[in-house]
Amino acid sequence: MPDFMARLSGVTAAYDGTPALGGISLDLPDNRIVAFCGPNGSGKSTALRVMRGLHKVESGEITVAGRALGDWSPKELARQVAMLSQSPQAPSDLTVEDLVMMGRFAHRGRFSGPSAEDVAACGKALQITEMTELKHRSIAQLSGGQLQRAWVAMTLAQNAPRIFLDEPTNHLDVAHAFELLDLIRHLSRAENRSFVIVLHDLNMAMRYADHVVLFKQGAVTASGPTQDVLTEDAVSSVFGISCRILTLEGLERPVIVSWGKNRG
Amino acid sequence: MTPVMPSAVRLAPVLGLLVLATIAAIGIGSSFMPPERVVSALMGQGTRMDEVIVWKLRLPRVLLAVLAGAALALAGALLQRVVRNPMASPSVLGISDGAAVGILVFLWMFSDEGNNLIVSVHWQPLAAILGASIFGGLVMLLALADRGGNRSLKIILYGIALAALAKAVVTLLIILGPVYRASQALTWLTGSVGAAHWDDVLTMALGLALAAPFLASQRLVLRQLVLDPESAATTGVPLERAQFILLATAVALTALATAHVGAIGFVGLVAPHIARVMHGQFRSFYLLSTALTGSLIVLSADLLARTIAPPLELPTGALTALVGAPLFLYLLIKGRRYHA
């Protein structure tokens, strides 16, 4: 087991010549929940995409699961790292069950039907995302939250030890957002899975992440254990807002309260 | 997952219709032959006369229609998955017309004054593949170089533009090229299985026999391609390689069919849609269902082409469009169920 799920060194990336990452270096610990936080356009999604080989780097090196990114074959990498992107799309007549089975692509035989293992992995993914009863629905018939859970189920069915999630709490109400993050924490603790999650909600990051990486304008301003990184000073300077970090009785982690640019 | 049996059973209607159409197509002609005589001639138990009519005259034509329909339908299904757009088809993307350009250039370059080819006609499919590849490749290169906006829409737009260009080149070649080739070229541009020989049937069959196991091995990749490119890639699909290989297969299938029966339109567009509605695009044997539907369309169109105004024989392609276009309109209007 490598000690790092991913290591980036001097990575730069751009979209059509517009720089998105300006030479970032980063070591992400394995078996942890890592949150990428930062303002819009700060490079956190791009960092996730280059780590999964979805976007080409201009320079720099990336190692994932102990091997250089370019040395992985697509299927091997898929067995190591699953990822749910920000706005995934599938045809509306696809059923939930068929969508989740698509997560098994890297495991399935070329000519045979789904193996017992494939069926079991899908069944489990449907069950822990509470989608079992909806499995025969087409995805057009799902609410926004159900659809997001269907995609999460597909990502989990891939059974990779490392999972990247780009704003997975999008479209989820508060209760389902907490449920998803509780599930992620459970999978991290019980099955030793590693997660990198792009999170907009700093309180979610504070509550669930073991390790936080703060992005600002394509650079990493801080990376380390959650409470060392999410400080009043760091949050204020990265987001340009005023905030206070408070400890509440009965809560393990503090909460962040912010009130915009002006001192209240 | 969908169990295998019900999906296989779903093939029964189209298979049944295809068998009926085959028997009808063999029986109907300048001398009518009732089904029982067709069947016994096919089994080698008919009269000598019947057997000559069936085996020498009608069966090659029927089989060529079946095989070409299957090839064009498969090409359409592959393109629709690769481009992720239900509007994609060999004719929309300029591949059919590219093949036509290839063949006309071939005829122009290698004919002598006496209307004879100076090289073997067996090179013709190669010319078709070359033309289809050049135009299909240009469409993809232009779409790849275009960084802005919706890639799949861009492929369609560049395809339409290049198809128009290819059509213009074809028209010019017919007008400016050797006169004695013009009428042959015209029939063949609308598409016809009228001049079928066992040679054509064998080449087509060989091409499809090569494509079939490959497509069977790619069925999961093809299914995965309905996802957005990033999701498909994260599940482990070697995206660019898969798209290239499947596109090349579609080009080869189109060129093969076009070289033998001409530019029969609408089959590649409509057959995958009919199979979606009738069979289901996420069931096992979707591709087989698409291929059988394509066979059925071209065979029926040819049957109509021969019988609608005897003794005149219309080009098959004119009838596939006549049957295909309204059917496609109907599916578009009715079919909110299947967005790609």
Word description of this protein:
- The complex is a heterodimer of chains A (264) and B (340).
- Chain A has a domain at 92-158.
- Chain A is built from 9 helices and 12 strands.
- Chain A has 264 residues and is α/β, with parallel strands linked by helices.
- In chain A, the strands form 3 sheets. Chain A has a 6-stranded mixed β-sheet with strand order 6-7-8-3-9-10, sandwiched between helices. A 4-stranded antiparallel β-sheet of chain A has the order 2-1-4-5, with helices on one face.
- In chain A, helix 4 (116-128) runs antiparallel to helix 5.
- Chain B has one domain (4-334): ABC transporter involved in vitamin B12 uptake, BtuC.
- Helix content of chain B is 73%, strand content 0%.
- Chain B has 15 helices and no strands.
- Chain B has helices at residues 4-9, 12-27, 35-42, 48-83, 95-109, 124-145, 151-176, 179-190, 198-217, 219-224, 229-234, 239-261, 267-278, 286-307, 316-334.
- The two termini of chain B are 20 Å apart.
- Classes of the chains: A alpha/beta (264), B mainly alpha (340).
- Chain A binds chain B through residues 16, 49, 52-54, 73-75, 77-79, 81-85, 87-95, 97-98, 101-103, 105-106, 108, 110-111, 113-114, 119, 154, 158, and chain B through 1-2, 4, 147, 216-217, 220, 223-224, 226-228, 230-231, 233-239, 281-282, 284, 337-340.
Give the topology.
The complex is a heterodimer of chains A (264) and B (340).
Chain A (H helix, E strand, L loop, with lengths): L3 E12 L2 E12 L3 E5 L6 H8 L7 E6 L2 E2 L5 H7 E4 L11 H7 L13 H13 L15 H14 L4 E5 L7 H18 L2 E5 L3 H7 L2 E6 L2 E7 H4 L2 H8 L3 E4 L8 E4 L6
Helix pairs in contact in A: 3-5, 4-5
Chain B lengths: L3 H6 L2 H16 L7 H8 L5 H36 L11 H15 L14 H22 L5 H26 L2 H12 L7 H20 L1 H6 L4 H6 L4 H23 L5 H12 L7 H22 L8 H19 L6
Helix pairs in contact in B: 2-3, 2-4, 2-14, 3-4, 4-9, 4-12, 4-13, 4-14, 5-6, 5-7, 5-12, 6-7, 6-12, 9-12, 13-14, 13-15, 14-15
